[in-house]
Amino acid sequence: MMQTSYNDDMKGITTDNSYFLHFREDDDILYVDKTMYAYRLIRERGNFFFLSRPRRFGKSLFCSMLHFLFEGRKEFFKGLYIAERTDYSFDSYPVIHFDFSGMTLLSEESFLSAFRSFIRMEAERNGISIERKEPAEMLEELIVRLSDAKGKIVIIIDEFDSPFTGAMDNPELLERIRAAFNPFYATMKKHAGRIRLLFITGVLRLSNLSIFSAMNNLVDISMSTEYAAAFGYTERELEENFGEGIDEYLEGNPGKYESREEFIGRIRAYYDGYRFSPDSEVTVYNPVSIGYFFREDCRFRDYWNRTGVPTLAVNLAKQYDLSSYSEGKYTVGPLAFVTFDISDITGNRLTNDGIATLLYFAGYLTIADSDEFATYLTFPNREIASSFSLNLLSRCTDDRNFFSLWFSQFIKAARSGDEETLRKKLVDFFNAFSYEVIGKEKEKFYQMAFHSIFLIAGIYAISEDRGARGRADEVLLTGDHIWVFELKMDKSTDDALRQIEEKGYAEKYAYLMKPGMKIHKIGISFSTETRQIAEWKSQSDCL
Q1: Which DSSP symbol is given to 43?
Q2: 8-state DSSP, 167
Q3: Which of 110, 219, 300, 382 lies at 20 to 30 Å from 74 by C-alpha?
Q4: What is the tens place of the pLDDT at every residue in 41-80?
């Protein structure tokens, strides 16, 4: 069911509809104009294009917009960039539009049946009856008959990789799906002269995959600077389209933030940060997360998990230990993206670079920087850091209800300065883990888990916080309370507190102190024998 929210002045926001006409036929629903990128695509040299983005970034809406654009439906583009600021003629082309996201994958036959149904539906929508039975032959018949009747055609393929990711845990089925798609794409290459535009989207960037081997004219624009902001919202688009909502919230909640910029800065920290081109510093917000945020009265929450945990990430977590990626920092070689192949996902064949690359495709990591030698990846924002940590930690305990029962008291204790309750909740937290998941690198696991819980809770946490004389293991900023933690394995908490003092970990936050605020310095010692918190010691300073 469609869900929208309406402020007094700002247009309504929908978070679960990707049909272009829904936005254009209802003047009260907000549409962020991306038609300038459609115009750019139309004017590109060549006519076969591929673009990857993570889930829930507006790929389907963009494909829907392209569909009506090429059908020449100019009336639906009134007021938008392409109609008002370009010379586009809105010539009409017959459109074949596939969306593979809902394809059934119970077996090879169910897949082929769904495949045939997609082609038949597109043929019927274009007034053509298909006689052939095999998918590639059916597509060829559709292309030839449609172009013979109406001239060049447009083919849009949305979520091309959904059948592949859905079969990740079934190597035999995956290979059969690949075999079925090989002639499908070869048919499009064969009839390239009949095609005005082929536009393919997906999560995985797989232009080098063998199913595309015949399509040497397929241009991958996934990391192009020209399309870095084609999906998601830039800072400017946030201000232009959601500025009224920001102002309304601040007017209705006076004193909650010292300035408008402080509020926007917090929105940015939670939901911005996706960078899709190594040659551009442009970052974007996840559009669905922003939609939920304003629809739910500007509450800072992890909306990413609310939209469903990605199948890609779930299947990856089943096969690989992802704990080494918990800090959200990873460096991949210069060929990591172009050499990635979906066949490596099955059979535990992914390298560390392959796992990091897949996490990038899934939206958990994004580009922080790059040079000629490497690409440096990181969590894009606090929402994704929280989501990744929750998914990772939830696999470490058999009690699936643990986190939902535990977090509210934990968050309350951190924000109110209730040290004893915070200690008890942390003890409970580490007691919940099974021995098997902790593994050999105990210190690394505890540091990962310790940092992750604060990210999940939505508390501003800094891991390995750099100071003038060293790095604090963890620092939390929670309103009137600043927490500085030093973690030790089988060592005295006195050593931990002494290190906090000698290294001056808390000194850098003295400028934040106001009357009534408190700095908590906490030393924690973990036992490698019991694998739990063995000792806790603290001291506090007030202003």
Answers
A1: T
A2: T
A3: 219
A4: 999 988 999 999 998 899 999 999 999 999 999 999 999 9
The whole-angstrom separation of Cα 475 and Cα 485 is: 6
Owner of token pair 């500007």: 298
Estimate the crossing angle of helix 382-394 against helix 311-319, to 10 degrees.
50
Angle at 282 between CA 278 and CA 288, to 5 degrees: 110
**Which residues fall within 8 angstroms of residue 252, CB to CB, at 6 or more apart?**
none
Confirm if 365 and 322 have CB atoms less than 8 A apart.
no
Residues of the chain falling short of pLDDT 50: 1-8, 207-208, 435-441
The values of phi and psi at residue 472, to 5°, are -75, 140
By C-alpha distance, which of 210, 182, 122 is closest to 158? 122
Task: Write down the H helix ranges in 475-538.
Answer: 493-503
Kindly report the CA angle at 204 between 198 and 205, in degrees rounded to 5? 65
DSSP character at residue 11: P
Q: How far apart are CA 487 and CA 451, in angstroms?
A: 11
Distances from the Cα of 91 to the Cαs of 34, 197, 320, in angstroms?
19, 13, 50
pTM value > 0.90: no
Per-residue pLDDT reduced to its tens digit, 255-274: 888 899 999 999 999 999 99
Rg of the chain over Cα atoms, rounded to whole angstroms, equals: 26
